[in-house]
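hey can u run this one w/ WTA bound, need the structure tokens asap thx
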Amino acid sequence: MMAEETEIRTYEPPEEFARQANVDDASVYDEAEKDYEGFWEKRAKELHWFKEWDQVLNWDPPEAEWFVGGKLNVAYNCLDYQVEQGRGDKTAILWESDEPGEGKAYTYSELTAEVKKFANVLKGLGVGKGDPVAIYMPMIPELPIAMLACARIGAPHSVVFGAFSGDSLRDRINDCEAKVLVTADGGPRGGKTAYHKKNADEALKDTPSIDSVVVAKRVGEDVPMTEGRDHWWEDLAAEAEDECPAEEMDSEDILFILYSSGSTGKPKGIVHTTGGYLTQVKATTRWVLDVKDDDVYWCQADIGWVTGHSYLVYGPLSNGATTVQFEGTPSYPGPDRHWDLIERHGVTIYYSAPTVIRAFMKQGTEPLEGHDLSSLRLLGTVGEPINPRAWEWFHNNVGKGNCPVVDTWWQTETGAIMIAPLPGLTKTKPGSATRPFPGISVDIYDEEDNPIEGAGKGNLVITRPWPSMLRTIYKDPERYRKTYWERLGDKYFVEDGAERDEDGYYTITGRIDDVMNVSGHRIGTMEVESALVGHESVAEAAVIGRNDEDKGQAIVAYVILEGDREGDEELIKELNNQVRKSIGPHARPEEIIFTPDLPKTRSGKIMRRVLRGVAEGQEDLGDTSTLADPSVVDDLKAARQ
Ligand code: WTA
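ok here u go:
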């Protein structure tokens, strides 16, 4: 009986899907295993290179170089090369605005022209090869245009998610010392308007490296423009030259920096380079997301996160696909917005996230009714573990049982998909990301750092280099080495827990470090803590992620006050604002608990496990005997009442 209860259904690839899949020969796994460098070399040959490489891989742990000596340009691959192959009149970006049915489409030729112009705008502002450019924008077409323009001239872009606060933007600009910031007056989202330029102005009070700001117009309201520094996008573009050659970039030149949360308060500037990144992003888009020439492909992530970089912009465009960029939210103007969009545009591939699927599930199937979703042929998810029930719901109600679901595991650091089914080949199991992509090798290690044999649970490890791996942390190689390589030497320590079953399938269970995953957004506990202690009434704060049915994790903050402020509603509001101001609204605590003390070990380390237990209402908090003062636990329980 037990076995029956825990048994998970498996799903063979639907026959019709398997017949047309980009990859339908299971020998790819063995072939890649025998010679993984050779496997990736074949994938690299699918790109356009000005000059091919002399060596596939130079691995001097923790430093990797892929396609050494090769020369290419990412924007050329995504634009000119597509036009050369006859896709000039094909839609490259299909942009749908916050209001249903409004939007704009760019063909590959049109997109190429816009990118060339904006590349010249950047050059005109003194941006050269190797100069980082900060981009802080809503989900408007100018965002991918700016990224591609940077790639064209070899300027690494640093995109900062548009919901980050001015303070967060300031820190990211200062870390990479960008000379130019590209932003917008603002943008509507879910019927509300956000004002990016206003936030940017906050940041710009203290960003000495910035000489120029380019502002795209989306909202059209008055915004303060600083003479000599701020320029309207449209004015500069109107004067820019049409032609702009694509810079020949070295395979290992930086394509972008993307800041990501880690265990400490300071976000890490994850560095991705050119040849290896595009090789793996292009291949995984074709193999896992099965993108083909006639697809209307929709990745619903914001471009401000890595998923948007790799699978809304670079992956689909380097494959010559039509990629949908959506400005709005799943619930505006009604709960059926995604289904309406899929129906109107005939979306064939829909790449979503567990948090979004769980929100849909909660609403029931009513919003789906009356929408023809028969264009869909593949579904994907990314960002956090997907519980089997949500997987099944997605498969049955959105995919009508006909679409394979690809659960894709990867990270900002990995650059591209690492563990996922090949939808024409792999039998799927709800909740499992299944097998490593061909050429990728992962394992599970125990707490003593020994590999586990067969089925088991432990720490996920990547055992050899991969083309789209991060190369370093911007200007901080020591932190790069310490964070990812110190523990295992030549193997990458993921900081995710995972379980492997008898079939060799992997289920990722979540982060094992102090990073929370809230609705698929990575937020460091320390970042929120340092925001809170920035408030004058806070003496100390400890933040944890509590399991949450909808968001995956919800942020709970324990706060010790100083002075004579009462922990009342008013103060909760102030603290929420404090977090909103220093990080952004997505990092606001769900619950703030005022407490006289925190559970600390004798060496002064906060026992987060206990805080998590209290926040989740667990009766048994495990061994608390190592606490300096075990009575704190009762205080905490009382404080939460
Ligand atoms: C989690 C997002 C389970 C994981 C691409 C990882 C997942 C972190 C999955 C990276 C998945 C991502 N199943 N967990 N399919 N995908 N994660 O850097 O904990 O924003 O380490 O990259 O998200 O988040 P990041």
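Residues 1-5 have pLDDT under 50 and may be disordered. anyway lmk if its weird
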